[in-house]
Write a structure and sequence with these properties.
Blueprint lengths: L6 H13 L4 H18 L3 E9 L5 E8 L9 H10 L4 E8 L4 H8 L5 E5 L10 H10 L3 E5 L8 E6 L3 E3 L3 E10 L4 E9 L2 E10 L3 E9 L4 E10 L10 E9 L3 E5 L6 H9 L1 E5 L12 E5 L3 H4 L3 H8 L3 E5 L21 E2 L9 E8 L2 H5 L3 H14 L4 E8 L3 E3 L5 E2 L3 H12 L9 H12 L5 E8 L7 H9 L7 E8 L12 H15 L2 E6 L23 E5 L15 E2 L6 E2 L4 E6 L4 E8 L2 E6 L19 H10 L9 E3 L3 E2 L4 E6 L5 E4 L2 E3 L2 E4 L2 E6 L5 E9 L2 E10 L11 H9 L4 E2 L8 H8 L1 E9 L1 H34 L1
Parallel strand pairs: 2-3, 2-4, 4-5, 5-41, 7-13, 14-15, 14-16, 16-17, 17-31, 19-20, 19-23, 23-24, 24-25, 33-40
Antiparallel strand pairs: 1-42, 6-8, 8-11, 9-10, 9-12, 12-13, 18-28, 20-21, 20-22, 26-27, 26-29, 29-30, 30-31, 32-34, 34-38, 35-36, 35-39, 37-38, 39-40
Helix pairs in contact: 1-2, 2-18, 4-5, 5-16, 10-11, 12-13, 13-14
């Protein structure tokens, strides 16, 4: 297209020559001829769709022959390869041993337009995430298919999951996960603590995975050991039948309760489990001496200046705000400084079905120019990290056109979707143009078929003048009564060392107008500032205190606070609040009203417990099985219960063949031994030192760390190889194959349907550029010949007229 600019000097030269008296017709024809030649040089073309079919597509068979495949029939990968090789060019890659790096092998085998047939259970224990890899290679034109098998034998594995650190005198709750390849196992589960049997039961398991909770209270400080063991006659492997988990018990952390009430179930719970201090106000209290601050049913005016509280939480402190008849909606929290720290807002909302959120991201060049695109990504990723499991999320990006990043609405009830979407956002690159209208149109299409609450969040720097009118038209066509629109301006004007490209007032104007048109909201964020907006639409009637009982349910089964808990029962009242975007509802009423909501604020953790201290409304949450809820809330807010000074050791349980990192915090370089062997430590930053251990055998190893005359003795459990943990077909692997247009086949179907589908996916429609330069060359030639013929004809006529005049 740059060649067309050469026409400008041609026009200028022609204009000058014409004004000097040259022959008008001749000069104009020459200008047109030269312009046509330049246009031909620019290479004009007509895009034509061309459909091609590859009759012999290239296929790679990836045969998983690692140890976890022992439960299946041998040789299936070879069988699939032999069949396909007789039809089309096919090559074979094999995985063996104890390392299932399926994601890495798919990436290495990928080629644009190729096909990969994976014969595997899909359990990946090394390298790239298999689901993310399938998403990536599919976007480059490689198709991935899966051939699954039914296990011929059963294998069982046991694992203990839970926190590595426990608090002295507190109930420590862990999960015992038993997995099996088939669906009908009978086994005896035995659990021991420090070598003493604590639990034994015969179990019949019909599901592929079963989780049981086990609790124990440790009364002595230092290292302890929990061992889970299963015994079954229907099990081909014994190495994965025993799992050791080391627990390090620390002193009770200090908790500050701000409450005028010392006669409540909340007070009794905290007093029995923590080093509790109780005061009635924040005045003259050193917050930093405490791991968590608990506010119990305090009116906003009673709390006073929250500046110190904000600094405490942002710096890493924990906060739990307990409701009641004098707090939240009854305590003037709405729009207060205190509420800005909380994961909820104190107004009522109707929760109708799921929450559906589409995030629309501006990836135009202006954001890239100010190095603000990474800040925008960070804002979005922070939101994705903290959205609840009841949320369906989509992401759209717009530059010159709109891109559906998420490829539909992804339910966050599927844990892998959150990680998939975060990785896709990380990989976004800047584009050109700013077609906000296209972004909003695409987002609206994604929300069209969803039910429940609908939100559209539009991030932009406000430089939308070129698409402003079209965007207004697009918003006018939307049903904004059904979808709440929120415009977030990323303020690039604070970048002082660069010329301001986006006028501050202009950007504010554009997005404010669009927000007003949609009846939505407008926010302006400086770089690195967090987004603090709310879910919810129509206010509903606040329940009357004591008028009826409300069932409570566990909404999120994966969060630290609620995993392994069985929340049941009824409460007689609650504070009617609405969760903010970026927070997680963990426990709700049966109608979806938040009871326990969490989020991270800066480096700290905050929990909204929007019912009371158990004295009037919520006694059921402080008794029986539910009595575990408040300690779990406080323990999550505490984070790491260990002291922040002296020698602090962080280690996790390790699997054979997988290197583990041990982190030590201290002011001077420590000395560390693992199983009697010296482990070198590398100083990474500040007080942080790291050492790598890679044991080759199972067992429990002594870990000793010494520094400055202080010695910490710990235990680290080394368990079976990761290859033996996950058994049976991985549903997340199969889901990734399906969502990327690949098929999942049984062994029999691999010989009937597989190749047909591969051929169907080998049909490619491409755009062929049909050159149009000949039209411009022909037009130039005809114009030139016509001009020559015309001049020649005029010459002949002039001669004849002259001769006739002479006669």
């Amino acid at each position: 297209m740059d060649y067309l600019l050469a026409i400008l000097p041609v026009l200028l030269i022609g204009w000058v020559i014409l004004h000097k008296g040259a022959k008008r017709g001749l000069i104009l024809s020459r200008i047109f001829i030269v312009a046509l030649l330049i246009a031909a040089l620019a290479g004009p073309y007509n895009p034509m769709p061309v459909t091609e079919t590859d009759e012999t597509p290239s296929i790679t068979v990836l045969s998983d022959e690692t140890a976890s495949m022992d439960v299946y029939e041998e040789g299936v990968g070879q069988e699939v390869f032999d069949y396909l090789e007789g039809i089309t060019p096919t090559r074979m890659n094999r995985l063996s041993g104890l390392r299932s790096d399926i994601g890495d092998e798919i990436m290495a085998s990928a080629a644009g337009g190729g096909h990969i047939v994976v014969v595997s259970d899909g359990n990946n224990n090394f390298g790239r995430d298999v689901g993310e890899t399938i998403d990536f290679v599919s976007n480059t034109g490689t198709n991935v298919y899966a051939v699954t098998q039914i296990p011929e034998q059963n294998d069982l594995s046991v694992e203990i999951i839970g926190a590595r650190t426990a608090v002295e005198g507190n109930e420590n709750l862990v999960g015992i996960v038993v997995r099996q390849a088939l669906s009908d196992a009978r086994y005896t589960l035995t659990i021991m603590v420090d070598g003493e049997p604590k639990f034994s039961e015969s179990i019949t398991q019909k599901s592929s995975e079963k989780t049981l909770s086990f609790s124990n209270t440790f009364y002595t400080l230092g290292p302890h050991l929990i061992t889970a063991q299963i015994s079954s006659g229907d099990d081909i492997r014994y190495e994965n039948n025993v799992f050791n988990k080391s627990i390090f018990v620390v002193p009770k952390p200090r908790v500050l309760l701000i409450s005028p009430d010392t006669n409540s179930p909340l007070y009794q719970t905290l007093k029995s489990l923590y080093r509790l201090d109780i005061v009635s106000t924040l005045d003259e209290v050193n917050l930093t001496d405490n791991k968590v601050v608990v506010l119990d049913n305090l009116n906003e005016g009673w709390v006073g200046d929250v500046g110190e509280l904000r600094e405490y939480v942002a710096g890493g402190g924990g906060m739990v705000v307990v409701g009641g008849d004098n707090s939240y909606d009854f305590g003037d929290y709405l729009d207060s400084d205190l509420e800005s720290l909380l994961p909820v807002e104190s107004f009522s909302s109707t929760y109708a079905g799921s929450v559906n959120v589409v995030i629309v991201m501006d990836i135009s060049g202006s954001l890239e120019a100010y190095e603000a695109l990474d800040d925008e990504k960070a804002m979005v990723i922070n939101m994705l990290m903290n959205m609840g499991r009841d949320t369906n999320v989509g992401v759209v990006a717009f530059g010159s056109k709109a891109i559906e990043v998420s490829e539909g609405m992804l339910p966050f009830s599927v844990h892998s979707n959150r990680n998939i979407l975060i990785e896709k956002v990380k990989k976004l690159n800047a584009g050109y143009g700013t077609s906000m209208d296209e972004g909003i149109k695409t987002a609206n299409g994604m929300l069209a078929n969803t039910s429940g609450e609908k939100y559209m969040l539009i991030f932009s720097d406000g430089s939308v003048e070129l698409s402003f009118e079209k965007t207004k038209q697009e918003i006018a066509a939307l049903d904004t009564d059904d979808t709440k629109m929120i415009f977030v301006m990323i303020n690039t004007n604070i970048v002082l060392d660069k010329p301001v490209r986006v006028n501050k007032n202009q950007g504010d104007y554009f997005l404010n107008v669009l927000s007003d048109m949609s009846g939505g909201e407008f926010y302006k964020l400086d770089l690195n500032q967090r987004l603090d907006i709310k879910f919810g639409r129509e206010p509903s009637e606040i329940p009357t205190d004591g008028a009826e009982a409300y069932s409570v349910v566990r909404l999120d089964e994966e969060h630290f606070i609620t995993r392994f808990l069985n929340i049941t029962g009824r409460i007689s009242g609650f504070n009617d609040v609405t969760q903010k975007v970026g927070s997680q509802r963990l426990v709700t009423t049966s109608m979806g009203k938040p009871i326990v909501t969490s989020w991270q604020f800066g480096l700290g953790r905050v929990v909204s417990f929007s019912t009371d201290n158990g004295k009037f409304w919520a006694g059921a949450l402080y008794s029986g099985e539910n009595a575990r809820l408040m300690p779990s809330v406080v323990n999550w807010a505490v984070g790491d219960p260990r002291l922040d000074e002296g020698v602090v050791v962080h280690s996790s349980d390790i699997f054979v063949g997988t290197p583990g990192t041990i982190t030590v915090y201290n002011d001077v370089t420590p000395i560390m031994t693992f199983g009697g062997a010296d482990i070198p430590l590398i100083h990474t930053e500040g007080r942080t030192y790291e050492g790598i251990v890679n044991p080759r055998s199972q067992g429990v190893f002594e870990l000793v760390v010494s520094a400055g005359g202080v010695t910490v003795d710990d235990l680290v459990a080394v368990n079976y190889p990761l290859e033996y943990r996950d058994i049976g077909n991985n549903p997340e692997f199969l889901e990734a194959v399906k969502r990327n247009n690949g098929g999942v086949y049984s062994v029999d179907q691999s010989k009937s349907l597989l190749f047909k589908d591969i051929k169907q996916n080998s049909i490619r429609t491409t755009i062929e550029k049909v050159s149009l330069k000949w039209l411009f060359l022909l037009a130039a030639l005809l114009l030139f010949l016509g001009e020559v013929i015309l001049r020649r004809a005029r010459g002949i006529i002039d001669i004849k007229m002259k001769r006739k005049g002479e006669k």
